[in-house]
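Same chain as my last thread, 449 residues:
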Amino acid sequence: MNAPTASAPADEGLRGLWRNLRAGLRIALFLPLRAGDFRASPGQYALLVAFNLAAWLAVSAFEAGFEGELNPLAVPVFLVNVPLVLATALAVARIYRDEALLTLVAVGLTSSDTWFALAGTALNVFAAGTALGDALPSVLLAWVWLAALRAVAVCAGTARPRFYFGALAASVMVAVAFFALPKIEVWIAEDEEREVPALAEERVFHAQGELIERELAALRPSRPALPELYFVGFAPDGREDVFLRETRYVKRLFDERYGTRGRSIALVNNDQSLEQFPLATATNLRRVLERVGMLMNPDKDTLFLFITGHGDEEHRLSAWQPPLELDDLTPTALARMLQDAGLKWKIVVISACYSGAYLQPLRDDDSLIITASAENRASFGCEQGNDFTWFGDAYFRQALGRTRSFAEAFAIARDIVARQEAKEKVEASLPQMWLGPEIAPRLKLYGEQ
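reply #2:
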């Protein structure tokens, strides 16, 4: 006996799209559903793919804070799913020996995509900074997999052993989609060449004072119940755009994955960002740390301070933003700022040459300190045109893409950097880490394993 097929003619247009989306929601929520509830035709499948693409782009724009520009590779990467779904639907149709099932199964497997995109975003927002946040990728994977099995069961039937082989085909599809297809940043920072305002312009110069005041006022106080992260980014050298790009990426990463939106601030020196970020001066950094220290609950909240820039052999971090004459940042000055701000629990990551010199002045029982290099070694990747320094890419983009553990991510990033340095035949930078005994167990509050 052939498997059940859609009992009603395939409606074209928006009415059919709505019926398929509604059926997809019922599949995702495991509510009662029949094959006849779908409207299956090549036109409806194409319309469903187009709608899912538009929804995916919109959801990604929301997650990016409606900043940046569309990555030109995003749409091609999304469309790779189309032949994957069609191949799976064809396999199911062959297994059930009913070629008419191809379009129906393709529609069924695709009908829940928009709902999963919305659910994933909502769960990321509510689960950030909790134990659930760390398990979220596994939860979503299991949910999508079960929904794909249900789509096969509803559209093609549960006659055994055919259903087992159909379920296997759907499982392979989900595994390929999650583990083999590339993950891509949909919205990227705008770095196109354009005229930028100069700090010497009176309007821009005076706007900087308003900008730092506005950013400080926008920082939210700690909530009573949850342990929370506060993020501060500091990029004091405006000679290379890589520091701007890296800081922008890391701030967005923490806002989205670790729930710091409303409790994050970045200070950057760069002609491209004079109207977006307050200047990265020692004075502004001191003000920001003092403000964060007032807003944080010292018993439960943690500061994540990220610094990226040029370091020298005298262990100073260069501050450069003409026409201003800015003070460089030294290890003792930074240690004094953190102490004066009353910040107890803190994670400090410094991506700069010779940054290992910051380890000793900053280390205590309540801190995790990570540096891109030893105190007598250079680090690499700060050339003009790069999106990341080598250590910044290894730690924030690659390692924290595999684990939420800040300490475990260091070990992963150190190995990545070592392999890259060996390949390029440069002297090893020897990244350093200090993990205080008191902060180690507290890091689990932020989803660490």
